[in-house]
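[Meeting: bench + compute handoff]

Bench side (C.D.) handed over the final construct sequence. Compute side (W.E.) agreed to return the predicted structure before the next meeting so the bench team could plan truncations. Sequence as handed over:
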Amino acid sequence: MYTGPWIYVHKVESFLVGTPSDSPPITLIHEDEPAKRLGFRAGIVGGLVLEGILFPVIDSAFGHLWYEGGTYSVRHKTPAYEGEVRAVWEEAEHTLGDARSIKFWLENKAGEKSTHGWASLSKSEKKLIPPWERQSFPTLPTTDEDLIPEFQMGSSRLPFQVCYTIDEMIKRHDRFQGCNWWHRVASPWGQPITTGFEIVSVAYKDTNYELNYLKSPTMARLRTPMDAGHDMVIYRPMFLGQTYNVSCVLRHKWQTERSVFFVHEYTIKDQNESNIALMRTYVAHLIKDLKPAAMPDKKV
């Protein structure tokens, strides 16, 4: 078992969820008082902030080969609050087609765990199996009720492009205390590359998201989007300063008593149409008319 350094995580900069016509006022899930009204102890730390601590673990465990045939899966099962956390990881049993696998989690100084996941290194690109196609992958639930009928499974959003710069990488790595020179100066492929963190962040680069989702009439019944997790396979590295094409498809959706979940699949390709990565994002939206008293403290 290996442990990383203690890192102090701050609540990320709040982002608006909802519309100005909301009543009560717009909820900011990362601020203390609005989060407490939803049943949390305080404002929660964003899932992407937590995942930023995990990708150095993958670099340490697998080296550069992971960027030529790696798999990643993570879930945020409980909220995390501002304070010190560290990554813990250990070798895990690997499945057919994998050369090695690790499992990891984050824990705070009280021993509470907030994020769980695993990563693997493929024996070859031809045997790269996405998490959702593996036998161990849990069956996703389905529900008869549908608060958002206009968003049908299989529907596509408009494609968009992403291009990460060296300035963005330096700013992020200063925040997370990462100093791997592959992502700042040069890499085994020559020019510097993004981390897996930037790849799972492509959804936040989608300029169509607000137009297609947040302004939808029925989305007014939901609030407070939260990262529930990511699954990903990476075929080849993503270079800084290069533009990549991204397409998005809604693969699954379901709802529970308190939340509605979306599963979007993102395909990232370079300008030659070569596959860079395939990713699925899991986002939970709290149902707006849910009474705060019904929200448990430890479940998202």
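W.E. noted at the follow-up: Residues 2-128+148-294 form a domain with the Thiol Ester Dehydrase; Chain A fold (CATH 3.10.129.10). C.D. will use this when planning the next construct.
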